[in-house]
Design a protein that fits this description.
heterodimer, A: 379 residues, alpha+beta, Butyryl-CoA Dehydrogenase, subunit A, domain 2, Butyryl-CoA Dehydrogenase, subunit A, domain 3, 3 domains, 4-stranded antiparallel β-sheet, 10 strands, B: 393 residues, Butyryl-Coa Dehydrogenase, subunit A, domain 1, 12 helices, 46% helix, 14% strand
Chain lengths: 379, 393
């Protein structure tokens, strides 16, 4: 099993590569991260113009029909360039939720603006104390006539300060940990009665704590069936994981290449670092970690594309295995670069930080190895 | 774990404990003392210890040390680190001070030692250079003698807290013709000298701890040479020996483990399978700490009998840093989604940080502690030292 890209996929890959190589070098990224807003609308527009934001959507809703493999291609390159723009949040998460769960009206209302780059989205699923369980929801949504009234606190919402819309999980029935009773709502980020407290994340992004106090949304903003949001969120998480895995693999590849190059040029004790056997073996292990990560990334994305049984369990397996691999590589890349690996000026530490964040988003490797062990093999 | 203490030593331990409780400055209790304090705040405890006569436990009495036995020194170290006090600046008290009283001349002792003790002079360490990390003997900063001055040119890097420093002790090359170790001298340089420039290096946790120090045609009086010209390597090695034994960090690891347990208790409910995993991971680290502490106590007992640990002391650096890295990593993992957030530096109350207070420094500590296995001679180098000097390989 090794993915042979189609002509279209090759075209997508080379165009993303060209765009990021020309416009998203490390210095350009540094400038973007340091801006007031913390991401670049100009680059987001370029992504849209290139068709990246349309790539995974089906042709029915105005997409290019590329599915999970096109997401994998885009995210792998984003991982190599440490792209901070919210492709996963907007396209992979919100886009696919709307595509899979949305009514015809909702698809028509929201997907064109995602594809054109006009609207940015974020997913508010986590809460204080929820850790990585998407069913651990205390925020409530009470039906009142033709509206729902939302109350509660959402935590660590990545990309929220940039977003025009939020997808918020809230409980329409049941207790805190019940799998049933979680529903999803589309909320205008600028609608009344929301309070956002924004902060920077360790990987140079922005996130927010969001409190909702009697936020009213029309019943037409319910996304998917009432009370069945937990399973929907888990399926959505699988797709987000596949994208994060591709991003991690991109980052691993860059770290390995940079470390190898450094070990061939950096001299200590009258010889290059690469001549020390202990470091050679370390880099061999980094190489093996990369190879295994590539394989699992492909395996997962092919499985999601074909919708084969066991995809969710595999997503947890890949999140764990690739997460540990990425952590190992990141640790060693910093270690082998010595002090330079600790410096904010070099890209190595920034890959380290992005990998640290990937290993938190949607569950850490320890969480997912347990889930892999426990969920039904058919899930 | 405790030493079996004589009644006198037990009374001493109680005295130290009480002194810390009564005198440690409240304003030094900040979320991250290593990054959140001003120079003046960092020096508060230093001055209190100086007044008490406890600032330099290592130093002989004639130079201002308290004249403690090995076990008292150890008790003091244990109590101050268990209590989470910020240690006095190591570059001054633990490093350059002993070099000056061991290898310096009378004038140097008189000039520098009292000012180190009082905290008047802040020292930084000019060892690493862009081309020489763990390979210290490859220093390229050059000192050329002309009359009663050296003219120094070079670039030191990773210089910790140089932004506060009054003086820097430097390894400089005074003889390029001989083998690397034999042409090095140990020079004391006034940071106010013309030609000294400090440039901040921001690290991946966002903090400003380390710096580049550029030396351009800096005139340094020959009177500031320690010992003999070209013998600097001997003095440097002596100093690094002092650095390594202090790196076990048992007190610090114990404190961070206690905090980690509180965080796990607060964050991860009973019945969550992750809890069992954290409990197991924490217990394993506790055993690592216990084993290292027992080793430390064994070495202290041996030292009290006059047996020096020698190069085996590298094991304290290796294990101490690995343990602390594991603790910071686990702490970062324990706070779950809030591990995504990081404090902005310089620290200000205006920046919002999400989640419970106990998690606010988890990200920066996790990132910052990556340096531990790199600095002070990387852990790879420490293993080489044990392989060569202890195992004879």
């Amino acid at each position: 099993m090794d993915i042979q890209f189609t002509e279209e996929q090759e075209l997508l890959r080379s165009s993303v590569q060209r765009l990021l190589r020309d416009q998203y070098g490390f210095d350009a990224r540094r400038k973007i991260v340091a801006t007031e807003e913390g991401f670049s609308r100009k680059h987001w527009t370029s992504f849209a113009e290139l068709g990246l934001l349309a790539a995974p959507f089906s042709e029915d809703v105005g997409g290019l029909g590329g599915g999970p493999l096109s997401t994998m291609i885009v995210m792998h390159e984003c991982g190599r360039h440490l792209v901070v723009e919210p492709f996963i949040e907007t396209v992979v998460i919100a886009g696919s939720l709307i595509e899979s769960e949305g009514s015809t009206a909702q698809k028509g209302a929201f997907i064109p603006d995602i594809v054109s780059g006009k609207s940015i989205w974020a997913l508010a699923w986590a809460e204080k104390g929820s850790r990585y369980d998407v069913a651990n929801v205390m925020t409530t949504a009470r039906r009142e006539g033709g509206e729902y009234v939302l109350n509660g606190e959402k935590a660590a919402v990545v990309g929220a300060p940039w977003a025009d819309f939020l997808i918020v999980s809230a409980r329409t029935s049941g207790n805190r940990n019940d799998r049933n009773g979680v529903s999803l709502f589309v909320v205008d980020r600028h609608a009344a009665n929301q309070h956002l407290q924004s902060y920077k994340t360790l990987d140079g992004r922005r996130a927010a704590e969001i409190s909702l106090r009697d936020v009213r949304v029309g019943a037409d903003r319910l996304l998917g069936a009432e009370g069945e949001g937990a399973a929907v969120l888990e399926a959505c998480r699988d797709r987000a994981i596949a994208a994060l895995c591709a991003e991690a693999v991109g980052a691993i590849g860059e770290l390995n290449a940079a470390t190898l190059e450094y070990s061939k040029t950096r001299k200590q004790f009258g010889t290059t670092l690469g001549t020390f056997q202990v470091l050679q073996h370390r880099m061999v292990d980094m190489f093996i970690a990369h190879q295994e990560a590539i394989s699992l990334m492909q395996h997962l994305n092919l499985s999601l594309a074909a919708n084969t049984p066991g995809g969710s369990r595999l997503a947890s397996g890949a999140k764990s295995k690739i997460g540990y691999a990425a952590k190992f590589v990141a640790d060693q890349a910093v270690q082998l670069h010595g002090g330079m690996g600790m410096s904010d000026e070099l890209n190595i530490g920034h890959y380290f930080k992005r990998i640290s964040a990937i290993n938190i988003q949607f569950g850490d490797p320890a969480y997912h190895v347990l889930r892999y062990a426990q969920v039904d093999a058919a899930a | 774990m405790e030493l079996a203490l004589s009644p006198e030593d037990a009374a001493f331990r109680d005295e130290v404990r009480a002194f810390i409780a009564e005198n440690y400055p409240r304003e030094m209790r900040v979320p991250n003392p290593e990054t959140d304090l001003t120079k003046e705040q960092m020096l508060l405890w230093h001055r209190i210890l100086h007044q008490k006569g406890w600032i330099a436990p290592l130093w002989p009495r004639e130079y201002g040390g308290p004249g403690w036995s090995i076990s008292r020194r150890f008790i003091f170290e244990q109590e101050t680190s268990r209590a989470g006090t910020l240690p006095p600046l190591a570059f001054s008290v633990t490093m350059v001070g002993p070099v000056i009283y061991t290898f310096g001349n009378e004038a140097q002792k008189q000039k520098f030692l009292p000012r180190i003790l009082s905290g008047e002079d802040w020292w930084c360490q000019g060892y690493s250079e862009p081309g020489s990390g763990s390979d210290l003997a490859s220093v390229r900063t050059k000192a050329v003698r002309g009359g009663d001055h050296y003219i120094v040119n070079g670039h030191k890097t990773w210089t910790t807290l140089a932004q506060h420093a009054d003086w820097i002790f430097c390894l400089v090359r005074t003889d390029v013709s001989t083998k690397p170790q034999s042409g090095i001298s140990f020079l004391l340089i006034d940071m106010k000298s013309p030609g000294v420039t400090v440039r901040p290096i921001i690290t991946i946790d966002g903090s400003h701890e380390v710096n580049d120090v550029f030396l351009e045609d800096v005139r340094v009086p020959v009177a500031n040479l320690i010992g003999e010209e070209n013998k600097g390597w001997t003095y440097a090695k002596f100093l690094l020996g002092n650095e390594r034994t202090s790196m076990a960090g048992i007190g610090r690891s114990t404190r961070y483990l206690d905090r980690l347990k509180q965080i796990v208790n607060a964050e991860i409910p009973n019945g969550d399978p992750a809890r069992l995993e954290f409990i197991r991971d924490i217990a394993r680290i506790e055993l690592d700490v216990l084993a290292l502490e027992a080793t430390e106590l064994r070495v202290v007992a041996q030292m009290a009998r006059g047996i020096e640990p020698g190069p085996a002391a590298s094991l304290f650096k290796i294990r101490g840093t690995e343990i602390f890295q594991n603790i910071t990593e686990l702490t970062h993992r324990a706070i779950g989604n809030y591990g995504l957030a990081i404090r902005e530096h310089p620290v200000s109350a205006n920046h919002f940080m999400p989640g419970p207070d106990y998690g606010h420094t988890a990200s920066e500590k996790y990132l910052n502690s990556r340096k531990l296995s790199i600095y002070g001679g990387s852990n790879e180098i420490q293993r080489n030292i044990i392989a060569k000097a202890v195992l004879g390989l």
